[in-house]
Write a structure and sequence with these properties.
Blueprint lengths: L2 H5 L4 H24 L5 H22 L1 H10 L5
Helix pairs in contact: 2-3, 3-4
């Protein structure tokens, strides 16, 4: 196995997926906390998990282009 095959190998989806899940849960909790503060605890957890899973699937599917979009449109400019 060449070094290039390892870098762009099959693990690529899962790395993006797990980082997307961590970011998505944090982002989902932030959205739910500031937007839907009247939700019950179970609704808050369910909506946060759904947003986290959606961001994780998008990050895993589209890889680096998804992260470029997240950085460009969702994070505040410095």
């Amino acid at each position: 196995m060449k070094k290039d095959d390892y870098i762009a190998g099959g693990h690529h989806f899962w790395i993006h997926f797990w980082f997307g899940l961590v970011f998505g849960v944090g982002f989902g909790a932030w959205i739910c906390w500031w937007t839907f503060h009247i939700l019950s605890r179970m609704e808050f957890i369910a909506l946060t998990a759904a947003i986290g899973l959606a961001v994780a699937c998008c990050s895993g599917r589209w890889g680096d282009s998804a992260w470029e979009w997240i950085v460009e449109y969702l994070l505040p400019p410095y």
